[in-house]
TrEMBL record:
Molecular-function GO term, any one: lactoperoxidase activity
Organism this protein belongs to: Eucalyptus globulus
Keyword flag Lipid metabolism: no
Transition state stabilizer, annotated site positions: R66
Free-text remark on how the cofactor is bound: Binds 2 calcium ions per subunit.
PROSITE patterns hit by this protein: PEROXIDASE_1, PEROXIDASE_2, PEROXIDASE_4
Top-level lineage group: Eukaryota
Protein name: Peroxidase
Length: 331
């Protein structure tokens, strides 16, 4: 009897598994229909607040997309980036990649407030980030995808891991790839997701090094188009102007398309971490060429890689909570 039960359970798991479009990482299950009964209006609410924010300021789409990435690379996609500092825990908002840079937190909080009104204590802040990243992509002209849902919010944050795990704009190709590999992401995900830099801005501090002294010999980065470099130097001086903003894709700065990859072919990538995708590794170079040639192929793979990144779950699995407000754990 016990044996046939075990068999039945095993059989059900094996038979049903292929039908389930879900991300399974570290024992957690995510699936797009997670809120279908508990909060059927969840996706509409997220989209309406994101659309309003992006209509007010197009850059907000880029900022929201980036916050999801910076959340997922630190203890998994668990909303840890959203927590403010407490007496015992410094916020990830203070890390090198996030300080004076990560933005959009008030939009996330506005979505959360709207959701708490309609379906109290139901939709996690981590899921809001995943949905807002998808909606931001779509609003700028990218393809849509189904977002697996059911994440839980963390009870803590890690400033240390935020500094350690999130790639830096002057990382070499092997370091970038290593940081993605450590998250279970591969070279295809690295090149494809870097295509996010088809929208949004970067500050002068993020690329000054390559304009003046890329490798300690007082020379600009040789893998940078020199007329583009002098254009950049005009508003990103050797010192001062740290926070001056530049578009990451200066051909179609607010369209989610493949022009980022075309820029790399012309040595007009803004960050060193962008340009190395076309100068350091054969497989990566081929991917850049492929996406530069075919927008549709890029957009399709982007959707797939976003689902994969969104499936990075915390090692604590499904433990965690649904926060009432995103910047604070429940008391
Ligand atoms: C491959 C390694 C990556 C590096 C080194 C990197 C680095 C950076 C840097 C330095 C900035 C400018 C920040 C500032 O100056 O304030 C930036 C902006 C941005 N990044 Fe990345 N990034 C990487 C991958 C990604 C990924 C995977 C995504 C999304 C899935 C992403 C999305 C964005 C977006 C949308 C912006 C513009 C944000 C805004 O305008 O507010 N990046 N990135
Ligand atoms: C990368 O940039 C950081 C911050 O500006 C700097 O401290 C570090 O030395 C740079 N690394 C390399 C390899 O140039």
């Amino acid at each position: 009897m016990a044996r046939s039960m075990t068999f039945l359970i095993l059989f059900s798991i094996l038979a049903l598994a292929p039908m389930c479009y879900c991300g399974r990482t570290y024992g957690g299950y995510l699936y797009p229909q997670y809120y279908d009964y508990s909060c059927p209006q969840a996706e509409d609410i997220v989209m309406s607040v994101v659309a309003k924010a992006v209509a007010k300021e197009a850059r907000m789409a880029a900022s929201l997309l980036r916050v999801h990435f910076h959340d997922c690379f630190v203890q998994g996609c668990d909303g840890s980036i959203l927590l403010d500092s407490t007496g015992t825990m410094p916020s990830e908002k203070r890390s090198n990649p996030n300080r004076k840079s990560a933005r959009g937190f008030e939009v996330i909080e506005e979505i959360k407030a709207a959701l708490e009104e309609q379906c109290p204590h139901t939709v996690s802040c981590a899921d809001i980030l995943a949905l807002a990243a998808r909606d931001s992509t779509v609003l700028m002209g990218g393809r849509s995808w189904e977002v697996p849902l059911g994440r839980k919010d963390s009870r803590g944050a890690s400033l240390t891991l935020s500094n350690l795990n999130i790639p830096a704009p002057n990382d070499t190709f092997p370091i970038l790839l290593n940081k993605f590999n450590r998250q279970g992401l591969d070279i295809i995900d690295l090149v494809t997701l870097s295509g996010s830099h088809t929208i949004g801005n970067a500050r002068c501090t993020a690329f000054r090094q390559r304009l003046y002294d890329q490798s300690g010999d007082d020379q600009p980065d040789s893998r940078l188009d020199q007329s583009y470099a002098s254009q950049l130097r005009a508003t990103c001086p050797r010192s001062g102007g740290d926070q001056n903003l530049f578009v990451l894709d200066n051909v179609t700065p607010t369209a989610f398309d493949n022009s980022y990859f075309k820029n790399l072919l012309a040595y007009r990538g803004l960050l060193s971490s962008d340009q190395v995708l076309f100068t350091s590794n054969k497989e990566s170079i081929e991917l850049v060429k492929k996406y530069a040639k075919d927008n549709e192929v890029f957009l399709q793979q982007f959707a797939a890689s976003m689902v994969k990144m969104g499936n990075i779950l915390p090692s604590t699995g499904s433990r965690g909570e649904i926060r009432k407000i995103c910047r604070k754990i429940n008391s």
